[in-house]
Amino acid sequence: EVREGVGRAADLPGDAGPERAAALLGSGHRIRADDTVPFALWCAAHRADDLTEALWTTAAGLGDVDTTCAIVGGVVAARTGVTGVSPEWLERRESLPHPFGRWDPVHPMGDRSV
C-alpha cells in the first residue's frame, strides 16, 4: 500500500498544492505509513531545495503534522545539509544537553570545550 501511494505521489504535480495532495495521498490522520509517507515524500520532492518552504508546505496539509514534518525535514535536510536551515532558526535553536551540547553542526570542527 505504501508503494502504491508513493507511485500516486510521484504522478501528482507540484502545483497540486498541499491541501489537494493531502486529500489524495493522506497526511497521517490514520496514523499509518500508507497514509503518511506518500504525502511526506511528495512535499519533500517538490520543495527539495528549501527546508523552510518544505516544512510550511507539509504543515499546510494538516494531518499528523509533527510526523510528516519530521519525515520531510529529514529528507530535505539530507539534501541541503545544515546550510538549508535558515539563520534565524539556527540562532533560535535550543542548546543540546551534554554531551551533545559540545557538538556544533554549523562549525563541527570548532571549539568543542564550550
Give the arrangement of secondary structure elements.
Layout: H1 2-11, H2 18-25, H3 37-46, H4 51-60, H5 65-80, H6 87-92
Helix pairs in contact: 1-3, 2-3, 3-4, 3-5, 4-5
Describe the structure.
By secondary structure, this protein is mostly helical. It has a domain at 2-80. It is built from six helices and no strands. It has helices at 2-11, 18-25, 37-46, 51-60, 65-80, 87-92.
**How far do the termini sit from each other?**
48 Å
**What is the N-to-C succession of helices and strands?**
HHHHHH
Report the sheet-strand fraction. under 5%
The level of helicity is 40-55%
C-alpha Rg, in Å? Answer: 16 Å
Coarse structural class:
mainly alpha
Counting DSSP H or I runs of 4 or more residues, the number of helices is 6
* Poorly predicted ranges: none
Averaged pLDDT, please?
A: 89
Quick one: how many beta strands? 0
Major β-sheet annotation: none
Overall geometric form:
elongated
Protein name: ADP-ribosylglycohydrolase family protein
InterPro entries: Ribosyl_crysJ1, Ribosyl_crysJ1_sf
Cofactor: Mg(2+)
GO molecular function: metal ion binding
